[in-house]
Write a structure and sequence with these properties.
- This is Peptidoglycan-N-acetylmuramic acid deacetylase.
- This protein has 262 residues and is of the alpha/beta class.
- The chain is built from 9 helices and 9 strands.
- The protein is globular.
- The strands form 3 sheets. Strands 2, 3, 4, 8 and 9 form a 5-stranded parallel beta sheet that branches. The chain has a two-stranded antiparallel ribbon with strand order 1-6. It has a two-stranded parallel ribbon with strand order 5-7.
- It has one domain: Glycoside hydrolase/deacetylase (TIM Barrel).
- 36% of the residues lie in helices and 13% in strands.
- Helix 7 crosses helix 8.
- The relative contact order is 0.21.
Amino acid sequence: MRKYIVVTPIIAFLTFFMVLMQPADSGAYGWGFKKNTDHQIPDIGEYKEILKEYGAYYVDDSGEKNIYLTFDNGYEAGYTDEILDVLKQEDVPATFFVTGHYVDSEPDLIARMVDEGHIIGNHSYHHPDFTIISEESMQEELETLEEAVANVSEQKDIKYLRPPKGVFNERTLNWANELGYIHVFWSLAFVDWEEQKGWEYAYDQLMNQIHPGAIMLLHTVSSDNAESLEHIIVELKEQGYTFKSLDDFVLKDKMPEGIHGF
């Protein structure tokens, strides 16, 4: 079994609402969009056609009032157990995109996520920029993370990928497809890993952007997220929203037309 030593520090990653964060000759894109507060799906411009071509997702555009909770986990700050308690209490599924550092340092939490019905997604082993490494290196990053998850939990394969730092291009989208992965970006997020401002702030940031079909990105390193999560879930349920897993959405979306009712 291949083993790796993490030699770089874990940083506060994902600078969200940005464009073209790499040099022009890298051919890289930084995931981003213009936030709105009118409860509509945000416009992602030219990215929409790129994602469609490669079977990637950022939102459920069916118009149904569904919400898909996703978390990016690079390191543990002591709040994930609390978040899992809320998800269990409210019977809400989530997808946790994890790094190798997280799996190695928190195997019990990975096992708990899987045991309680959540999905583990691939956020790479060392959190590199995929657009500046080789196809072979990207494959090794993904397969090593998948192997690490399988070693500590009952989830033996991973189908969803969230690229480190939200950086991608058509080449990396294609490589992921060849390896059997589906890219999942997001349509709702805020800068939640920096200074904490109280659970009401996190609540307002998310509720102001909420829209049908949202794929919501949060980080479990945020105490505000942990404290606001139950309030958010309860309020959205009262507004008629249903929390579903990525499997509910992606598997249904990939079914041939006319088969969805089965």
